[in-house]
Amino acid sequence: MADRILKANAFTTFDLLEGSVEGHGFTEKAPAVLNVRTARRDPDDVTLELELDNVDLDSVPPHADRVTLSSAEARTLATELREAADRIDETNRAGDDGERV
Amino acid sequence: MVIGAAHVLSHMPTKVERWKDEAYGMEIRDHLERFASEGFQSIPEDERDAWFERFKWWGLYHQRKGQESYFMLRVGTPMGRMTPEQLRTVGEVAREYATGPVDNPEFGEAYADFTTRQSIQLHWIDIEDVPAVFDELESVGLSTMQACGDSWRNIVGSPVAGRDADEHVDVWPIVQNLHDRFKGNDLYTNLPRKWKVAVTGDYRGAGQGDINDLAFEPAVKEVGDESAEGFNVRVGGGLARKEPRFARDIDVFCRPENVPAVAAGLSGLFRDYGDREDRFNARMKFLVDEWGPEKVRSVLQEEYVDYELPTAGEDLRDEYDYNAGRADAPGDYVGVYEQRDGQHFVGLSVLVGRMAAEDVIELADLADAYGSEMIGLTQRQNVIVGDIADEDLSAFLEEPLLEEYSPDPHPFMRGSIACTGTEYCSLSIVETKNRMVRYARWLRDNVAVPEGVEDFHIHLSGCTASCAQPQIADISLRGMKTRKDGDAVEAFDVGLGGGLGENPRFADWIEMRVPADEVPGYIANLLETYEAEREDSESFRSFVAGRDESELADLADPEETSYEDPYLANTKMTWYPYAEDDAMSASPAPTDSNDEPLATDD
């Protein structure tokens, strides 16, 4: 079997997420590594990298995906993630309130 | 032409390169002594990253989160070779200074780690104690200089060089020469990254040159009617960063007297052409990837050596058996072996390379009492006692200490290597050494050893940094996480069938995220299949090599057994995995030299 593409250590952003891959005619689930990375030297962009465990995938060859974000794009993503997380928290709080009533 | 180090530093690209430019090398000693006298808190908080990076050059690594103010200290012993007096000093330093707020449940209060590069690591060192530790080590000729950092690291090779009855060239004088020449040498103080060198003179391949930046490998060169003994040169090996490489042959034969010139040339070439703009890309293996061996050879010839380099001689690799997974020879130095002079060296198994400080001292005294002049640390984290006279051998083998550190251990207690893990290391994501000890004991007590198997190599690494060399073992375990019964638990990716030897091979990765408590069951099932399906005395490595991916995946499944794992939860998040209250918030660090918490501004 192929080795992992992405390294995984204590500085990896997430070493255990639930991921899925979807294509025409297939959908597979697998554990995933998700990492945020910047160059050590004068970074001018952010790399977001994702790899699903290849042993759990039959439909695609072992690989990792990367997207490059400018600082503005990274902030846009961070803002959207934060807002989405806030919505989850609000929903949970509402649920809590409901139970207390 | 040799280009001075200053020439290549004009760009100063990375943060680490800037720190190194401000202060690095020998001068760090003065700063260390100043901080030691003024205490940990005298290191300005906003400068700590820079100072901790620089301290590495003097062998000090700051320990991980939750253990602030404590350091790991590494002593480099060339080829793992020491005198009993030096070993005793290591034990005494460990007993006196390598103690922390909490004992380790398997190894007690103080211990020493023997590493895969034949060095010694001590933990829980307070900076206040560093000058005293340096004094004690240096009083017997030991040093921490360049044990870490971007420079010539500890040179590895067979510790029994010159004593081994089965060797091509005695490399000990060569290695001593290299050690003296390249330690503290301003020209090579500041390299783009670490520089690991192996010098092998035996027929066993015990230097493990294939995984080093620079390897001198035994060879013979026919020149006219003369047959010259020396070395072939390989460069650019290494296992880290998920980018393992075996060192590549640059078609150079080197006579013993030319080793320093070729070593200087290649480390100078690395200094000048290695990538200082990206530390991830800085190791020699990536320069060899980029250039190819032919260009490395031509640049070495044209710019760094002033004699004509001969082409490679005939190597002796077909005889290599060290960590080679062969069925016909042991892959380590454990056991009793005859020396050239008729005396014996005795290799003792040290499970995961960790020995209690009191045992280190006892072993040193024992060696001294039996007239040994040589202790050797091996790359398999074991220890050798040399020079045991024929008439003393039986008595030595009867010594009680050898029940714990046996020259004839159970196969599952013999071949295990583990890195530091979450106990101290900031990179690791799983607990390692104590877990490997528990794995080995469980396997010993519960699993039948396949017939003829004497040493079975399990290498357990806490992350992809590969410090336990996980790619070159019968069974490779590399730390990961998985979910079990709804909880995130420590786990391992599992590889099979790696090893060195004539034709080195990296492991095939077969399983991902096996929960740590199901690994022993997986190994038991795997060995049962191996025993049932192998042909005659086929080695495990050969058994794996003969199967394709799907066959390997079908060999065994993970399984819960009677094995219990006390470290399943996320030990990375503890301040110390074995503390009664292991929550990060319960950490006493940073502490003073008496392990008492320092007052903070909080």
Main sheet of chain A, how many strands, which sense, barrel? 4 strands, antiparallel
Greatest chain-chain contact: A-B, 23 and 37 residues
Class from helix and strand fractions of chain B? alpha+beta
* Whole-angstrom Rg of chain B: 23 Å
Q: What share of residues of chain A is helical? A: 25-40%
Q: Count the helices of chain B. How many?
A: 18
From the spread of the alpha carbons, the general shape of chain B counts as globular
User: How many distinct beta strands of chain A?
Assistant: 4
Strand content of chain B: 15-25%
The neighbouring-strand order within the major sheet of chain A is 1-2-3-4
Number of continuous helical runs of chain A:
1
Q: What characteristic shape of chain A results from the CA principal axes?
A: globular
First-to-last CA distance of chain A:
55 Å
Task: Give the SSE string of chain A.
Answer: EEEEH
Distance between the termini of chain B: 56 Å
Numbering strands along the chain, what is their spatial order in the largest sheet of chain B?
1-2-5-4-13
